[in-house]
Backbone:
């Protein structure tokens, strides 16, 4: 065996999940290696939560297999793998009648090892309300508890389903810091998110899902490259036409000039040639097209009839 | 404190336990306090004689009202407790199974290193203990109030088998609902099955003695295996213990087999 080959920790092989006649997942396959931080992106109903549910062993695939650490996940034996996994979901229902302190006490009793220091560190970062009943807490405060619970046993793999929903910006940043530190420690994180900027921020790889199928599985940087450049020009020549590869063109006419914004997916040389041909150029701004845009354009591409 | 699913369940249900135990204490005190009035029932004799046979089943045999052990067996253990315990069993069985799944808390528990079998068995043990605490309330109510009521005396040797069999019936009721909830994940299925068995048992046992066409089905009632008055008279049929215990264990095993493999919402 090649020692440089990273260990596969999560592997889905041709996973299909049907609920009645409805296919929630359709032939989904991917693998995640140890130490990777993978973002899992898709619109509502794309199948992200169903995928995570099969990985956690909450539900069984109709066809195909899910493996964790090389072991096939089955609902009846998934608990043996959960010792090595941390899990949190944005819509996670924590035991409402317990205080957070009681819940952590219960949770830590289910795990081997002494995690007191890590628990203190996580409480220092997220500042949860430990002595109120969880049921009486706000959405954001409950989410802090769910996140602490996912990390507190120092698991090898952390699976997060919309982890920052309900968190305020400061806590979102605290969470992203924690993910970055976990990455340095070699942890594997698989997180679904609607906040594509946070995915771009911390993830090395992005898997995009649509209608139960994977439509893209790329390095985050490649996705940004593929998504092109966002270009805004201001010119005094009102009849300026955008380059032929431009998409999402918006033109705003002012009294003496026009501002044109578009996404350009062609090469840098083509863009340079076009810019040099623009008459009465007054201003130009070229930036990376953000992941939100990339996501949107990928979805739109898929939506177009072939 | 919160070391296991068993302890967590007891903690979650502490107010339920307190409320129902208090209810059983109150009911037992009430029924004990009625004894002096019920044993002097000359007027009831003629009233009962004129009632249709089916309705007589709801009141019981008047001869059983003459002594406290048979009175408490026929009026409390034979008629009222099975109905009330049935309601308790459905609420508890649903609360420990489908209610947690509907709220989404079951997934949270299953995301931890807790096996489905362990989760189910620990919750079932908590159900058994909660039922035991409830029946403890009956003992407390009777023994606490009997010394103050004229003629109300009962030996522990008589009371404890009655309470133990009550507990077995309650556990069987609760386990059927609980098991249906875990096996199916559906509140409707668990509720329907629980109601069917509890109300069906009550109807078959109450009216089966007097309505000919029901008599053949009476043995399908769980209460058939809890002849409270016979127990109060000192007759204990251990086959009844086996039947009630088997109903609970078979329900539990079916639930484990199905719950281990099914999807959790």
Residues:
């Amino acid at each position: 065996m090649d020692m440089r080959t990273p260990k596969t920790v999560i592997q889905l092989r041709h996973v299909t999940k049907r609920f009645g006649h409805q296919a929630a997942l359709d032939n989904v396959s991917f693998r995640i290696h140890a130490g990777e931080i993978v973002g899992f992106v898709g619109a509502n109903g794309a199948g992200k939560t169903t995928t995570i549910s099969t990985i956690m062993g909450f539900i069984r695939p109709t066809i195909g297999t899910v493996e964790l650490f090389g072991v096939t996940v089955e609902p009846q034996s998934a608990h043996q793998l959960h010792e090595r996994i941390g899990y949190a979901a944005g819509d996670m229902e924590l035991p409402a009648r317990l205080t957070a302190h009681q819940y952590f006490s219960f949770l830590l009793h289910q795990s081997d090892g002494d995690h007191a220091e890590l628990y203190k560190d996580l409480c220092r970062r997220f500042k949860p309300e430990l002595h109120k009943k969880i049921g009486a807490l706000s959405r954001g405060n409950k989410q802090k508890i769910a996140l602490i619970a996912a990390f507190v046993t120092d698991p090898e793999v952390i699976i997060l389903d919309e982890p920052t929903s309900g968190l305020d910006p400061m806590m979102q940043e605290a969470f992203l810091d924690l993910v970055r530190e976990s990455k340095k420690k070699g942890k594997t994180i698989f997180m679904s998110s609607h906040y594509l900027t946070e995915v771009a921020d911390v993830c090395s790889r992005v898997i995009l899902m649509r209608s139960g199928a994977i439509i893209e599985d790329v390095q985050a940087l490649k996705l940004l490259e593929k998504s092109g450049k966002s270009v805004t020009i201001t010119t005094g020549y009102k009849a300026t036409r955008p380059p032929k590869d431009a998409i999402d063109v918006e033109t705003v006419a002012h009294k003496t000039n026009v501002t044109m914004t578009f996404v350009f997916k062609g090469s840098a040389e083509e863009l340079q040639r076009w810019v040099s041909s623009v008459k009465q150029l007054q201003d130009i701004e070229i930036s990376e097209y953000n992941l939100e845009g990339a996501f949107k354009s990928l979805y739109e591409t898929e939506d177009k009839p072939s | 404190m919160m070391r296991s699913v068993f302890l967590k369940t007891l903690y979650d249900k502490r107010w339920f336990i307190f409320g129902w135990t208090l209810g059983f204490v109150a009911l037992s005190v009430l029924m004990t306090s009625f004894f002096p009035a019920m044993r002097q029932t000359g007027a009831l004799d003629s009233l009962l004689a004129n009632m249709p046979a089916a309705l007589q089943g709801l009141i019981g045999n008047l001869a059983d009202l003459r002594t406290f052990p048979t009175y408490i067996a026929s009026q409390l253990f034979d008629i009222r407790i099975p109905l009330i315990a049935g309601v308790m069993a459905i609420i508890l069985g649903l609360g420990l199974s489908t209610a947690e799944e509907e709220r989404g808390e079951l997934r949270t528990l299953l995301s931890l290193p807790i096996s489905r079998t362990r989760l189910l068995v620990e919750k079932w043990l908590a159900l058994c203990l909660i039922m035991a605490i409830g029946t403890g309330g009956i003992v407390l109510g009777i023994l606490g109030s009997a010394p103050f009521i004229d003629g109300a005396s009962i030996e522990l040797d008589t009371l404890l088998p009655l309470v133990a069999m009550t507990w077995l019936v309650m556990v069987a009721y609760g386990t059927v609902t609980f098991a249906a909830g875990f096996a199916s994940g559906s509140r409707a299925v668990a509720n329907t099955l629980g109601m069917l068995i509890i109300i069906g048992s009550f109807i078959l046992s109450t009216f089966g003695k007097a309505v000919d066409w029901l008599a053949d089905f009476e043995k399908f009632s769980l209460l058939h295996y809890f002849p409270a008055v016979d127990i109060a008279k000192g007759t204990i049929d251990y086959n009844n213990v086996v039947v009630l215990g088997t109903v609970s264990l078979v329900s539990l095993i079916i639930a484990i087999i199905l719950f281990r493999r099914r999807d959790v919402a």
Remarks:
- The radius of gyration of chain A is 23 Å.
- Residues 169-184 of chain A form the longest helix (16 residues).
